[in-house]
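Every protein is a chain of amino acids, and every chain bends into a shape of its own. Below is the pair of lines this work produces for a single protein:
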Amino acid sequence: VFSLRVEPVAAEAPMVDPALERALATLPVAQRSVVVLRYLFDWSEHQTAAALDIAPGTVKSRLSRALAHLARELEGDDGPR
C-alpha cells in the first residue's frame, strides 16, 4: 500500500533554472505533475502512478510527451521566436 505523506523539508528549495521554470509552466497540468513527481520528488513510475491514480504506462507516455515538449521549448529559449 502506497501512502502519500508530505514531510517538512529543512533544506532550501532546489534552484530551478528560470528557463526551465517557464518551460514547465507551458505543460498541461497532467504532464507537469508527472515531471515534478518523477524528477523533482524522484518517485518511481509506480509511486507516481499510484499518487495520480493512473496506470504506470500512462506515466511513461505523459513523461515522454512532456520531455519532448520541454526539449522544444528549451531549444528555442536562446534564439528568436
User: Anything to note?
Assistant: Residues 17 and 63 are 19 Å apart (CA to CA). The chain has a mean pLDDT of 85. The chain is about 60% helix and 0% strand. The helical segments are 18-25, 29-40, 45-52, 56-75.
